[in-house]
């Protein structure tokens, strides 16, 4: 089993900053990608940012220049630094981790989600 736990959500005023953390644990042999997704009420879940093995990153256009994703390989942890937050960033943020277990199979595991609310 692979467990994924997010932390760091909450309420912030527009223009403020917040950092989310996500740690993966369990029978992990390797991690290929760690990413953040979000789902606002009435909308589909969308990719926010992802970091893959080797350090390459990708962001959705609406957060480029405001959000930064980073990864601590030793801790199997990924962070999302969110600056200049806007009300439209309000959503439940989910962490996704993809990799391979010690026993061989690939995995794609999700966290439980953390609420981010940006007030205007």
Structure description:
The structure is a single chain. The protein is mainly β. The protein is 0% helix and 62% strand. The chain is built from no helices and 11 strands. It has strands at residues 2-7, 10-13, 18-26, 28-39, 46-52, 57-59, 67-72, 77-82, 91-101, 106-110, 114-119. The strands form 2 sheets. Strands 2, 4, 5, 6, 9, 10 and 11 form a 7-stranded mixed sheet that branches. A 4-stranded antiparallel sheet has the order 1-3-8-7, with no helix packed on it. The relative contact order is 0.33. The model has no long low-confidence stretch (mean pLDDT 96).
Summed up, what is this model?
The chain has 120 residues and is mainly beta.
Quick tags:
seven-stranded mixed beta sheet, elongated, 120 residues, four-stranded antiparallel beta sheet, mainly beta, single chain, 62% strand
Helical residue percent band: under 10%
The H-and-E topology, N to C, reads as EEEEEEEEEEE
Query: How much of the residues is beta strand, in percent?
Result: over 45%
Q: What is the global morphology?
A: elongated
Report the C-alpha radius of gyration, rounded. 14 Å
| Largest sheet properties | 7 strands, mixed
Q: Give me the number of helical elements.
A: 0
* Number of extended strands: 11
Q: Which class of secondary structure composition applies to the elements?
A: mainly beta
- Report low-confidence residues grouped into runs of 5 or more: none
Mean pLDDT: 96
Head-to-tail CA distance between termini: 40 Å
Blueprint (SSEs and pairs):
Layout (H helix, E strand, L loop, with lengths): L1 E6 L2 E4 L4 E9 L1 E12 L6 E7 L4 E3 L7 E6 L4 E6 L8 E11 L4 E5 L3 E6 L1
Parallel strand pairs: 2-11
Antiparallel strand pairs: 1-3, 3-8, 4-5, 4-9, 5-6, 7-8, 9-10, 9-11
